[in-house]
Fold this protein.
Amino acid sequence: MSFPVLICDDSALARKQIARSLPASLNADITFAVHGLDALKQLELNDFKLMFLDLTMPELDGFGTLEELQRLGNTTPVVVVSGDIQPKAKAKVLALGAKAFIQKPIDKAVLNDVLKELVEPVAQPRIITPTSIDLPILRRRDIYMEVANVSIGRAADALARHFDVFVHLPLPNVNILEVSELHMALRDLADNDQVSGICQGFSGEGIAGEALVLLSDSSVADLKKLMKIPADSEELEELELLMDVSNILVGSFLNGLGEQSEVRFFQSSPVLLGQHISIDSVIASTSGSFNKTMTFEVSYNIDDTSIRCDLLFMFVDESLPLLDNKLAYLMEDF
């Protein structure tokens, strides 16, 4: 007898990883959903014995899906599998009824421990007929989206722990841009005429680029309140705060990327592009640095504040084949 399982994740790579990690002994009959609304529709049509749920998704995220399951009285056991590993995120999903939380990328040993807790063992030996699974077809962009998703989750976790806050995680944007398109993207990032910009170079095994951290003036002011720094404090304290935020975000992101690509990244000291400057000044600082670049971009928002921090990673042209090679294993079946 098969064991019906619903896997809900917008990432084709994550859906494939979870499906491939389920033990054959479970005899899972797998259905996929690409966001929360899709999952709720599947739950209306079918009875599932277990559901795996991502948190950061379009249409309806994992938190909203859990809230809706509670409202509907649906008791399907849910295991959250997410790159958003903040302590407050874990506490929130467990409070909303999730049975367990597994950190991305999924670890088979951890998954098996969770399954032992949630799935009743078979009383007698049985003959298992393998269930056919139509696994997602992966594209290069799918790989980079999921790798970026895990890495931004590491950075959000470090920021959340440092400031004791909850950081909202949107989906990352992954693009290959000409330099003119990069400048357009930077203008879109800055919804405030005045920003503070920090730049940090990074490199590892021939893979190199620059990270850019942008904070609007209003965000800097709110960060100072969060850290209980007097509003009229010296600019040196504000500068230290900016450098601190940049080191936390860039270092944690690179650690997450390095774990997945098996590359040890080194980052240079943060460089202040300017405080209370126009976005055009930031754009001018990137002119001549890139012809074409792959970018990972995300905007972090801190709960109960107006703080928004934009993080942009730009990889130089020559790095892309090397990074492709390092991540090629994710395209393979395992």
